[in-house]
UniProtKB/TrEMBL annotation:
Pfam assignment, any one: p450
Protein name: Cytochrome P450
Any GO CC annotation of this UniProt entry: membrane
Principal location listed in the UniProt entry: membrane
Keyword Lipoprotein tagged: no
Top-rank taxon, per record: Eukaryota
Cellular compartments annotated: Membrane
Binding site for heme: 428
GO MF entry, a single one: monooxygenase activity
Organism encoding this protein: Rhizophagus clarus
Heme among keywords: yes
Length: 481
């Protein structure tokens, strides 16, 4: 313990952000980080300013807020998000066929093939959201209570996404859609394992959480097997059509067709299909998980505030009549009250600190004069920015569903104060798809049901360290007509 203390004793150089004092040797601030983070970080900022360092899991980590936080987005080449994320969540070990694929490829693919094709795919989103709602919520002539709604919403959200990713023929197989939807839930527990072994060495954490993989257990394996088996005959069918039709071949409108048209697609090579399925999983993990969480958080926020439901219903009814139920992207953009509600729900997501980065080796000096040395980890105090009175007024802490109506500030817009989707040139490229699907889901739900919490109260989210998970309390659905 003494040797470990000496090795791990934090060393702060000149002109660095101050290190918050701590009383527990070796552990430092780890306990407060895991179990009391909101109060702890808020008090640290009040006492030490917008930049300060804490000692958690055996290393000094610098917390940034307000102006310093936005500089990270403005200077993306000076910070490394991928390495910091891989420490906690070794996705490359879980998706071994995808290990050499650059994250920029997935970002470009999402931007061009998913968000960039909203006008084409909005009909698919509408069709399969309605089908999912009818199948998994169904008739509620008698009030129906659903607990742990995230799993339910995830299944509904996954249905249109699966059709867009692999096409309607492949997505007609229930086991394939279920695998795509369940992937994030099966990988999720790895995200919340505290990296206690960081106290000894960072590689030990990765070694332990990936140890089952070395003995053949991989939560992705069974999902990969299902998807590969379902896609294989479809790939062969499409390749045959290309050979027979030549220039008359009509490409399918799904992401996997895009993969098949890439130079690195070669169905004759062993495991080539596995590579592209893992590419698919990398996007699936982000697309379905984040969209379903945004949707279920908004659903709980709506259910806990029945006083706003009628106002949103009036807007939904007008738009639905105008388009005769065939909602387009233009119609989704008219849902200004719903858009404001979704944006406010995202602003109140509850995540305290988020988006870890490493400072690159040469270090970085912020405009306030403070310097952070190279290879220091930084974390962004996102709640501080999202609840800032300077940005959102004196009532910034309050949930005001129509705060953004008539402000020319849609939920997809990224600015220095609204950092839910990151910022700068690396802002989430899938946000346009996620917001449109979330709004479409809520629109159809509001038209069909009255929703409320079983308790009659606004339900709190569940905190897991600095992050949140949706409530597991009951939501009551009741037919409108």
């Amino acid at each position: 313990m003494i040797v470990l203390y000496i090795i791990r004793r934090p060393r702060i150089g000149k002109n660095e952000p101050p290190l918050v004092p701590y009383t527990i040797p070796i552990l430092g601030h780890t306990f407060n980080y895991l179990f009391n983070i909101r109060k702890f970080i808020k008090e640290c900022k009040k006492q030490y300013g917008e930049c300060f360092s804490i000692y958690i899991f055996g290393e000094v980590v610098t917390v940034l807020s307000r102006d310093s936080l936005t500089e990270v987005f403005k200077s993306p080449d000076d910070f490394d998000f991928t390495s910091a994320t891989n420490e906690f969540f070794p996705l490359k070990s879980l998706l071994p066929y995808n290990a050499d694929v650059d994250i920029k490829f997935h970002a470009k693919t999402t931007r061009e093939q998913i968000s960039g094709k909203l006008d084409t795919n909005i009909g698919i989103i509408r069709k399969y959201l309605v089908r999912g709602i009818d199948e998994w919520i169904g008739d509620c002539n008698e009030p129906k209570t659903i607990h742990s709604a995230w799993y339910l919403v995830n299944r509904i959200i996954a249905l249109p996404i699966a059709n867009i990713l692999v096409g309607e023929e492949a997505a007609s197989h229930e086991d394939l859609v279920k695998s795509l939807g369940d992937l994030a839930f099966d990988l999720g527990p790895l995200l919340i394992i505290p990296p206690i072994l960081f106290f000894i060495h960072k590689k030990l954490h990765e070694l332990v959480i990936t140890l089952p993989l070395r003995f053949g257990w991989n939560p992705v394996s069974r999902h990969r097997e299902v998807v590969v088996n379902r896609l294989k005959p479809i790939v062969e069918k499409r390749l045959k059509e290309k050979d027979e039709l030549g220039d008359n071949y009509k490409p399918y409108n799904d992401l996997f067709e895009y993969y098949m048209n890439r130079p690195d697609f070669d169905n004759t090579k062993p495991n080539n299909l596995h590579l592209h399925v893992d590419n698919l999983f990398a996007i699936t993990f982000a697309a379905i998980n984040t969209t379903s969480k945004a949707a279920v958080d908004a659903l709980y926020d709506l259910a806990g505030r029945p006083e706003i439901l009628d106002e949103l219903y009036e807007e939904a009814l007008i738009i639905d009549k105008e388009c005769n139920g065939q909602v387009t992207v233009a119609d989704v953009q008219k849902m200004v009250k719903l858009d404001s509600f979704v944006k406010e729900s995202l602003r109140h997501s509850g995540n305290i600190i988020f988006l870890p980065h490493y400072v690159i080796s040469k270090g970085y000096t912020f405009s306030n004069g403070l310097t952070i040395p190279g290879r220091r980890k930084i974390i962004l105090y996102t709640e501080d920015m999202l609840k800032a009175k300077e940005n959102f007024g004196e009532d910034a802490e309050d949930f005001k569903p129509f705060r953004f109506v008539n402000t020319n500030s849609p939920a997809t817009k990224v600015d220095r104060s609204y950092i839910v989707f990151g910022g700068g040139k690396h802002a989430c490229p899938g946000r346009f798809f996620a917001i449109n699907e979330t709004k479409m889901f809520l629109h159809k739900l509001i038209l069909k049901y009255r929703v409320s919490t079983k308790s009659g109260k606004i339900e709190d989210k569940i905190y897991i360290g600095p992050l949140t998970s949706p409530s597991q309390s009951g939501i009551v659905f009741e037919n409108r007509i």
